[in-house]
Specification:
The protein is mainly alpha-helical. The protein is built from 9 helices and no strands. One of its GO terms (molecular function) is DNA binding.
Length: about 190
């Protein structure tokens, strides 16, 4: 892998192609979680890879490359929504109580189904939900990334989980959304 990275640093097209091919699925899975559709996800993915190739010399080889590229894709998706959409679906609130903890029952839900449900959320809810429940960010970090208050982050998460729960109940699955989701960004649990 280090040879491919070194080739990318030298702007070698074949190394860039190999890196793209190696990490396409992983990065697209991240982008799909934040995007409303595959076209939007592809746009974020392309911008993310442009950033990867532009800044690859900043990669620290002592750290996992997969984490580095995943962070770039997440940040690119956040930047995409920060610039193209206004977060109008939020309100400041101090605290909301969490809905259920049905992590065991959650396993009934296929990744594809969950992705479709998440994509159906508003951009504000979807972004906060992904950052908190899947990527493991704290509300303070989310607030800073999205330029919103901590209360807004908590409110958006609560409402996102509520909307997902409503959709799951409507589909007669009887599954509860746990506080944190254990999903590998490749789409595996």
């Amino acid at each position: 892998m280090q040879g491919i990275i070194n080739g990318c640093i030298r702007k070698d097209r074949s190394s860039q192609y190999l890196l793209y091919k190696e990490f396409y699925s992983y990065c697209m899975a991240i982008c799909r979680r934040y995007a409303i559709n595959d076209f939007d996800a592809a746009d974020v993915l392309n911008n993310g890879f442009l950033k990867v190739f532009t800044h690859i010399e900043k990669y620290d080889p002592s750290r996992p490359f997969k984490s580095w590229i995943g962070r770039i894709m997440s940040n690119t998706a956040i930047d995409h929504y920060r610039t193209s959409l206004k977060f109008s679906d939020h309100e400041d609130v101090a605290e909301h109580q969490e809905i259920g903890n049905g992590a065991a029952v959650y396993d009934q839900l296929a990744y594809k189904d969950l992705l479709q449900l998440i994509q159906g959320l508003s951009p504000a809810y979807r972004t906060v939900f992904n950052l908190y429940a899947i990527d493991g960010y704290a509300h303070e970090e989310i607030a800073e990334l999205l330029n919103i208050s901590v209360g807004t982050s908590k409110s958006n998460l609560f409402k996102a989980r509520q909307k997902l729960q409503e959709k799951l109940n409507m589909s007669d699955r009887g599954v509860e959304i746990p506080a944190k989701l254990n999903i590998d960004t490749d789409g595996k649990r």
